[in-house]
Amino acid sequence: MKNRLRPYYPLLPVFAAYLVLFLVGRNVTGMWQLAATLVFYCALGQAFNIFLGMTGYVDFGYVAFLGIGTYGMATAITGLAGYPQLGLGIVAIGFILAIVMATLLSMAVGAVALRLRGAYFAIATIGVNEGFRYLIEGANLWNGSSGMIFTAQLNEILGRDLSSRIMTFWADVMVLFIAAAAAVVTLLYMKSKIGYALTALREDEDAAKVMGINVTKYKIIAFITSASFAGTVGAASWALKTPYVFPPEVFEIHYTIEAIIIVMLGGAGTMLGPVVGALIYGISKYYLSIFLPGFQLFIFALVIIFIIVMFPEGVVGVIKGKTRNTAIAPYIM
Amino acid sequence: MSLLRLENVTKQFGGLVAVDKVSLEIAKGEFVGIVGPNGSGKTTLFNVINGVFYPEEGRVFFDETDITRMPPYKRAPLGIARTFQIPRPFASATVRENVAVGAMFGSRGKSVNVEQSLEIADRVIERIGLTGHGRKNAGMLTPVEKKFMEIARALAMQPRLLLMDEAMAGMHPGEIDNMVKFLVEVAKQEKIAIVAMVEHIMRAVVNMAEKVIVLDHGEKIVDAPTRQALSDPRVVDVYLGKGAEEENADSSSA
Ligand SMILES: Nc1ncnc2c1ncn2[C@@H]1O[C@H](COP(=O)(O)OP(=O)(O)OP(=O)(O)O)[C@@H](O)[C@H]1O
Ligand SMILES: [Mg+2]
């Protein structure tokens, strides 16, 4: 008899990693911040992988979706501060706004940019990120360049205790759940026609078209999914954890670069890859900054270039190849 | 009633006329060989038929529907499939997944799910003789195996028209004979019209094609039943002319 759960085995190592991160963070003194940073990287990688990994298109403006998600949560908290009776409902509304706004932005960007091929798409998206930031600053949207600080409103809505528990703990737990949800969606996509269409178009877009695949449609599906996860990461990790938002910070391109590194390092288009990439990247960045402060970026650049050139399929890609036809193969995807 | 009809189709690249006012008809289930020297516009003709390029002039009809400007992804579900001159596998996917993509997005479309598509893939792989290669990455196949894989992928689409660009290039005479036998059988059983662009004109064409179309400099110069076409002096010209030139080039460079 066929094991009906077998298709879901690849989730086990992913969830195990998240559980270990949580337990270590909770139980080892002084580890929560590192664990939370790693969880953030995992969520970032897992979300970005749905687009970058599955389509092979590089979006240099990806951080804009985290940024707009941050604004979504900020809008809910500041706009509804007069209704403290809504309590946590306001946080829920914040997440919904984050998803809706990230979706709208990704539809607008995708409708134009996803018609461009490879490198042209990448260049266009750099413009989108910068353009969006200048729009917020120039048109004085959401307070323009002065940004928004909403710690006081969060305190008012949820009370000081809960609000500080959210900032120091629950926001990170939410990010953990977002990462896990992104992994589940990745798996569901991979098992469905969407995943087959995306693999085909990533490998050869023209051949995919000729075989009946509406490549634009599938690219947009991946783009919107990836963007809305990014929006929730911004809402939780940036708006709830640190209740303020400044355009230069939330549109900082180095987050996009980090996300690209995590996905490539771990294995683009694999489900476990972003976790592995996030852990390797996050842990080595942390210890390099302690032992070799100032040099970490330089060393990183070298190591990453080396790894990406030598193992373009990433760590998990290599492991997948080596473990094919072995007992652990069903767990690695 | 014809399955495919081209009316005065012209496709240019800048000043170069790659396909020049070509009209032709392919009947249902018909096996047609297209021949012509290098650069005569065979691949371009295929690209116009499956929508990679839209022609500047003329019309393309499939099943009497005008598809001249229909995007390629909408043509595949109608039953138009093709293989490429240089194989284009989805390299990181397995052979099985490659072929399953054909089943999923071809003319079966929404009527099959992923699991059923994989089962169809297994059957087609078996049938074409790639048994045992299903779980390999398509990128790891030999060039000839890749050609087989592409044909399997196209057949999984359950096409009514299969365009094969240099499908048998690089194969040994034995492999060509087997492939021809296989194709003739499939075409008959599944009522697929096959338009094959063939290199080894005599060997492949004589054995399978009911009709031969000859292109030269983008123009259709012959369109006739196989035996008649092969004895046509213009065909002999195109091929012997080319052969003679090559011989000259060889002897002058020696
Ligand atoms: N995308 C393109 N852009 C510009 N010119 C092209 C393009 N594709 C084909 N051509 C030109 O059109 C002409 C016909 O080319 P095509 O590839 O259709 O010939 P062919 O008969 O398939 O040749 P071969 O036997 O070498 O495959 C050639 O002169 C070729 O250089
Ligand atoms: Mg050609």
Mean pLDDT of chain A: 93
Q: Structural class, from secondary structure content of chain A?
A: mainly alpha
Tell me, what's the shape of chain B? Answer: globular
Largest sheet of chain A: 2 strands, antiparallel
Q: What's the end-to-end separation of chain A, in Å?
A: 23 Å
* CATH uppermost class of chain A: Mainly Alpha
The secondary-structure element order of chain B is: EEEHEEHEHHHEHEHEEHH
Just name the CATH architecture of the largest domain in chain B.
3-Layer(aba) Sandwich
What is the terminal-to-terminal distance of chain B? 54 Å
- Secondary-structure element order of chain A, N to C: HHHHHEHHHHHEHHHHH
Name of the top-level CATH class of the largest domain in chain B: Alpha Beta
Brief account:
The complex is a heterodimer of chains A (333) and B (254). By secondary structure, chain A is mainly α. Chain A has helices at residues 11-27, 32-55, 63-79, 88-113, 118-138, 151-158, 160-191, 193-203, 205-210, 215-240, 247-250, 253-266, 273-291, 296-310, 314-323, and strands at 148-149, 244-245.
